[in-house]
Amino acid sequence: MHGVFGLVLSAVRARRAQVLTLLVLTALATALAAAGPWYGLAAGRHAAATDVTSAPAGQRTLSVRRQVAVEGDPKGALDTLAGTARGVLPVRDTTPTLGATQAMSVSRNGIGTSMPVAFRDGLCGHVRLDGACPAAAGDAALSRNAAQQLGLAVGDRLTVSAGPGTEPVRLRITARYEIRDPYGAYWSNPLFLADEDGLDPVFTPLATFTDPQLGNPTLVYDVDVPEALIRGDGGFRLHDVLRAAEQELVRQQIRLVDPTAHILDTIARDRGGIERGVAVALIQVLLLAWFAIGLAARYTGRDRHPDLALLKLRGNGRLGMLRLTLGQHLIPMAGGLVIGVPVGLLAARWLAGPVAGPDVADAAVQSAGAVGAVLAGALLVLTAVEAAVLRQPVAALLRRVPPGRRDWRAGVVDLALLAVAVAGIYQARYGGPDSGLGLMAPALVALAVALLAARALAGLADRAGAVALRRGRLRFGLTAVQVSRQPGTDRVFALVVVAVAMFATAAGGWAGTRTANAVRAGAELGATRVLSVQAANRTALLHAVRQADPGGRHAMAAVVEAGAGPPILAVDSGRLAAVARWRPEYGPAGTLADALAAARPPAPLPAVTGSRLVLRAVNDTPVPMLVTAVLRNQASGATVPVTLGPVPRGEHTVAAAVTGCTPAPGCRFLRWELSAPAAGGRPGPPPDSGSVTVRSLAQQNPPADLLGPRQLADIARWRSGTAARSLDLTAAGGRLTMAIEPNLTGPDVPGNQAYAVGAPLPMPLVLAGPPPAAWRFTDPALYPSGDGYAPVRVAGTASALPVVGAAGMLVDLEATAGIAADTDLGGTFQVWLATDAPQSIVDALTANGLTVTADETAAARADRLAAQSPSVSRRFALLAAIVALLLAAATVAVAAAVDRDAQLGRLRALRLQGLPAPVARTTAYAGLAAMLAAGLLGGVLAAIAAHPLGRSSVPPFTDDWRVIPAPSALGGVALGAAAAVALVVLALAGGLAVRPLLRRLRDRSGDRDGR
């Protein structure tokens, strides 16, 4: 045994170039094999973490609910629910949030409006309070919006009831609240938010629920699910555990609301996509590595043929000689293993991060299996190559000139590979690119091109070389003959074509995925940077942004109504083109602004800046009337109702004080409200008939006419509601008459509001996708305006719009604020910032009263998208393609190095026969250069062909987002860059391999021959 080992070591020392080649090839293959599993697990873990943190808080919060009669002990009932939930749910280390809520209603303008009465554990730490935190039974915190809608202040009493005929519940308002973290888990439960048609809940201590009218609340136990449980670390299956918990809770008549299904599905699809992408790239390169190792063994085996012939003459058996030759391969393979595995692990950590926890053992086992597969496959290939050599007779082994033609077996192998390639292309085109062989369709297209081109190249070079030599064109002729007659050139050529095509395809896919991430991030945000802010209302938002950026070049106010059908994006349209990241799919950026300008709405009414209003009106109803002028502060958006009167029957002049309009920019007139005095002097429903005519409205301190004959007589300035019994308006003779429509159908409440037109009607908008279904039966209309809806018209269409996607509407924010008057339209308030917006703009926004609750950039969102499976798979595919290119380069180098002595002998013989030295030197490298150039061109063409034939494309996102068409998987820039890199790598490998031949040829020929 020692003798065999000594022979192996002697052979290894004697053939260092061959050993180095096999070491490099093995190191590359084992590095990728070791990196694949570690990369997949680390990237899958990172993708899961990104999916969890990117998901809305509501999708990570479990809610246990039970409606129960508390029987005067709400705390005991809530503690019982908490104990049950804590014992059943798998989340035990996270502090839950307890709550209780009961549906109630409040009277607003004589109409009942829903307003839940709620308790929420730790409320005062999650809101900004204007007043004292509710502490005793009967204390309550009312939202700023609800307080504005109801006209209540701190210290007032709020009366709510469960329904007609029930005992009311009277609450003492100790504070007005504003939510601090609207996107946090605390506010993710919709039970503690306003419903579509109601007001924000009023919050009170739990002791208030001892009132019998609040004795049947819905008790709530909310808890955040830790990220580790959602990710499924250690094989934990949250879905199965929650299903078992749900069944247990149902048996106790308790409901579990589990919103985690969407996140779990996203994580599963991300991990599956990453595993599939890594496996496909790994398999392709490993097959290529085995081919390269076999080709290298075939080339380097020529130097071993004399030794094998001598061993045969001495009577050695095939098994012993096979053991001896394989021993020469095992040593460099072991060296490649030692180098490749740590390099691969470091590369995986650099690209995807570390693997932690129980995944370490799984990654180690999978990497060991992949590396073992590489080595086992390489040994099988080497065994097959050496066994074929050992079958040759001694005479064939001693022959220095290799056979000139390939045997029939090579043709059969080519046909089999072509059949596999055709099957893969067919499956990709008709069975889907993500099924079976369709996953490797681009590589199979490259293989088919490589095999066909190799055949064509050999035949073309053979014929062209013969013709060139007969005509005396020695450089071209000898180069062509070298390409056609050199054994194995076609295989090296095919390897180069496949490697270049894989590299170009992977580079194009990686670049396309990066572009797709950037496009989606910009389309979802709408601008380079978007701030989510809190403001009292849309008017306050507009005022703050315009004050912070008077020029309109850096910031734009926007409101997103994601819950509308379809979603609505309201923007300050005059700033849209300067601030937004606009795309051609959105249509012209100025469509909305131009439509608003063309509508020519009436000039705004004069601003109210005085401390007192004076009304001259004619009351033609049977009772005294209260005429309320509802104003809105142009800076804060606060509603300022000024009740004038009562106005007795006939014509009278009445006055009332105004508070909240004196500072600039003052207040804007919104609407008139007619009412009759009720008990306690509060406004009540108007009578069933009669009219009130406004003759003039003026202010004092400073004095100014606000509404004169010209404004009052212009019917274009006024509109009534659109409910069944709205006011009839008549504008003529310098006055505005508001007539109460008689009740002809039933005991409903008559309309009592007349609005000043604050926006062009119908309001223009840009529509993406189909119009709402309701428009098929009624005139297009949006937004509640008092007691009805505002008419709209489609000014333009687009295939997509920012933020709202392929189905939504783009409207003007100021127009919506004017139409809605003091109605709260809801939505997410945002400030879009241009790319060059300075930080001082953000400081100015906060100085003008906005509270920034979230700050997101398109670049950060693109980075989160880059953690999903399409981007992660493309990165590993690019790494695998780089390894494939290096494998091809190493094979090219060994092919050139092995043939170096034989080619030197041929060129020296030709020099003795008169071949000029420059021609000899050109011939020394031109054959290899021509083969590499043809391989590079073939690889580029194969990559181009793979796009239509193999359905090569940028994969969709994990959630199948397709609002904006995906970019090409092989753009011109990416293709050119990939070709340039491949050219440099192959040229460097070929140049280093040919350089010793040129040096030896030059040393022998001398400078005199080259002149």
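The above is record 1. Record 2 follows with the same two-line structure.
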Amino acid sequence: MRIDISRLRFWFAAATIAVVLVVAGFYFYARYRYYHAVKEIPQKLGIEVQQSTESFSLSKSEGGKTLFTIRASKAVQYKHGGRAELRDVSILVYGRDSNRFDQIYGAAFEYDPQSGNVVAKGEVHIDLEANALGQIAPHQMPPPELKNPIHVKTSGLIFNQKSGIAKTDERVEFRIPQASGSAVGATYDSKTNTLTLVSRVELSTTGESAANVTAEHGTLTKEPRQAVLHRVLAKRGESTMAANKVNVTLRHDNTIDRVLADGDVRMWATGETEVAAKAPHAEIFLTGKNVPRAAAMSGGVALQAAGAHNITGNAGRVDLDFGPDSKLNKVRASKGVRLLEKASGGSQGASAGIVDAALRSSPGIVRDAKGRNRTQPRDNIELTADAVDFYVRNGKMLDRAETTGAAQITIVPGNSRSPERSTITAGKFNAGFQRNRLTLIHGAPNARIVQSVAGQPDKVSTSDSLDATFAADGTISGFVQQGSFAYRESGRGGKVERSASANKATYSNLTQVLVLQGSPRVVEGGMAASARTISLNRRTGDAEAEYDVKTTYSELEPQPSGALLASAAPVHVTAATMTLKRATGVARFSGNARLWQAANIVQAPIIVFDRDKRALQAEGNENQQVSTVLVQPEKSGKTTPVSIVAARLTYADKQRKARFEGNVLVRSADGSMTADHIDAFLKPRQSTGAATTTPSELDRIVAEGHIVVQQPTRRATGAKLVYSAENGKFVLTGGPPTIIDAERGTITGGALTFYSRDDRVLVEGGDQGRTVTTTRVSK
């Protein structure tokens, strides 16, 4: 009777190895051992052995060393067919080098020489253990300490010696110090060294990283050294992995080299944050100590996370690097990376797709259904790049990330009513994290932001570098761009409507205000403004400038019928601050404001200028009044200046009318005048193309309220005055009008007319009474 004990032993060892190899993909290990220790049991019991029906024993030795010993309480050989039975069997296997101490034992074995079947009756137990002291102490005694024994239990075992195939349809159980498991049905082909676990492969590991692994069936081979499992599902805590096929490759010392998963590879984790990943392929590389050193998912990776951050992503490949302590150090996504953080909160909405597919195909996994509705809408943030490296601190906390190659970030506000989209590009992006929350994005060089609204031209800003900052709720709070900052807004047809430049620009998402610092300059529609600080409201288009404001309005069309602001020459304004309303084109300058075009100058604490209407308003205060200078012709034909100060000035070039109000004072070469308010009418400029060297020419003045005219030889008062600059004529009415002349004395009447160029006085009585003239007589 010839029974190959070595093949039987290998079958049991291999059955144990199959399940242990599954766990290897989750950082557990197993050993895989095969050796030729036992050659044969004689064909017929009793021929070469002293027959005994009780206390049967058989040993095989070679080179003075025992390879195995078989003991049985009873041996029975039947005459018909030569069938033999062994009862209460115990087999000890020492190996050729005495490096084993394995035990196989069971209640009964039966051998049928006609069929070649060796059948185990009832349960079969196997204990596999290496004997490290065997070679130096080959005394066949049990080792002093059993290390990591492997225990296997099965039943219904049939080994056919003719085919070399061992088979059982029963449950196979195994146990090692780190794990225990089972399978239903197994087949071992000793000729090809192939073990097949037929169905329901299960394994449970112990320790801090306890895991449960199941597979539909599996196959193990010696050459190549590998185990292949099908329809695998592995769970560890809140993490789960599933794949259609898992291939485990061993080194020559039987340590695990690589675990390769193929076909619908899915990994997901539940909890406060639900994460799922899917790819056609995944592989894990391990060190000689069976700890992971690297891992990868390839063939098109899809990622989805729900919870505090709702993220979906895609990449051609994802690589993971582990440190010596098996902690994750780095994750690299490459080959077309796309990551999208969605604005909507809650795991329910974000769990569609990958996670749902994983849950449907994996019964028993319960999704976290907690509602997580945010009170404030978050931004949709999408990152696309050639590659992204994520660096991990302590194996679990994101520390930083950086892109490689072309990269772009797209931001869409979570409020669906806002159609604005921001697209950010840079040579490279670096991101910072705190508690796995994105807190900073830095882009350089060649940073660029394009802000788009459907149906409107884009708003583009460029700079050497860019920093995006995040609020506590995860929304982007703003941007800081530094180094050669430039901003451009285009109108219809692509024409630039507004541009800006500075050394630094800070943008707030909350206020939508862009603050420019470091020699800022803004150009819009022929207006150029500079200051120490300029703020642009991107929602309204309004602008504010502070400290040393200098503004120039150019590209002006000449106004032939205009006067003070009719020239095509630039209009310049300086002030401490400026506020520009884009909708109206009106700018308000305050703080020692000064406006001039060519020789025309207006100074006041506050000047409001309307470029389109060529109009202005000026306001004085208790420390400074509004002032301007006009000119009027002399008798000789030359022009002399006329200075006017008042509390307020309103001017519109279309009417060529300047209205001065509040403590008005007019000074000229031949005298002065005060009034409550006056309207100064100017002559139209005959030539408005080139800048002139003289201010606008005064045509006439209409003054009202507490009028006092002071000339070298007379003083006039009244309620209303009309003055003609061409001939120096004054017509004074109301009050009644009165002239006190050094030569003629006091003159009153209904209306008094006098001239600045001579001593004439015309008196009209009117309806209010007779004219009274008082003449001073020389004594």
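Residues 163 and 189 are 8 Å apart (CA to CA).
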